[in-house]
Structures are given as C-alpha cells and as structure tokens.
Specification:
alpha+beta; eight-stranded mixed sheet
C-alpha cells in the first residue's frame, strides 16, 4: 500500500510541474518555434510567407534591408533582388507584451512574429534575412492562433 501512495504522490507532483511549466510558457508570451494553428476554413491562412512562391514570382530575395508587402505580393520597385538557389528556416519566434488575461479577453490581440532564414544566393554567397512584423492573433505558447494579417514584413539583412 505504501508503494501506491508514493507512486500517486510522485504522479501528482510530476503533473503539477508539467502544468506549471505550460502555464509559464503561456504567461510569458514569448516562444521559439511555436505550433501555428491556421484556420483556412475561416479564411485565416498560415501567417508565414511562402518563400518558394515569393522567389518564383519575384525572381529572388533581397541582399539588403527591405520590406515585403504580402497582400500585394511585392517588394519595393527600386529594390534589386538576387537569384536564390536555396533557403532554410533558421528560427521562428513569436512574442507579445500583453499579459495573458488581456490576450485572452481581447477581441483582436496581436503578437510579433520574427523569422530568420538562411539564403544561398545563386552566385555562391550566403546571407541571413530576418523578417519581422506584428499580426493579429492569440499567442498561447507553444501555440499561435492567427486571426489575420498585419502590416508589411520588415526585412533586415544580417551580416
């Protein structure tokens, strides 16, 4: 009988630690590589840019700081784009400064999404681009529930 009590107590403690950890993630409002719960049936697609489509339509990606208008699917007209042979996602980070209770009760909460992609340009060089913008949606780390788009993506070329 003592074994069962120890086992039950250990299970309760482990369960409490798991719940505390999950609550901590949700409360902090900051997480790396979140699971994004897109809702296409409601007209809310995945909030990450489709880099393969961008490269196919525009012919490449920038080598300098820029912006990307996802709605118009274009970079600024004066920007020179470099052909790309490959790209890799290095990091996805979502964050918010709103406390948990405000995020949950807000009808249009926002969060910031920051992406880092490593780009192999066709000329053999490599670069890192950081794409960032705020978006409408609920961040409950490790989950993001997108509600809709935000402004254009700000792109920073990292050396």
């Amino acid at each position: 009988m003592t074994r069962w009590r120890v086992l039950i107590a250990a299970s309760l403690i482990l369960g409490a630690l798991v719940l505390a950890s999950a609550a901590r993630w949700a409360i902090l409002g900051e997480c790396r590589n979140p699971a994004i719960l897109a809702r296409p049936s409601l007209g809310v697609g995945h909030p990450l840019p489709d880099f393969d489509a961008i490269i196919a339509v525009t012919g490449g990606l920038p080598r300098s700081n820029a912006w990307w208008d996802g709605a118009a699917f274009e970079f600024p007209h004066f920007l020179r784009l470099a052909p790309v042979s490959a790209w890799r996602m290095r990091a996805i980070e979502a964050a918010t400064t709103e406390p948990l209770h405000e995020r949950v009760l807000d009808d249009d909460p926002t969060y910031t999404l920051v992406l880092e992609i490593e780009v192999d340009y066709a000329d053999g060089t490599t670069g890192v681009l950081r794409w960032a913008r705020w978006q409408y949606g609920l961040l409950l780390c490790p989950f993001v529930v997108p509600y809709g788009d935000g402004p254009e993506w700000q792109i920073q070329h990292l050396d």
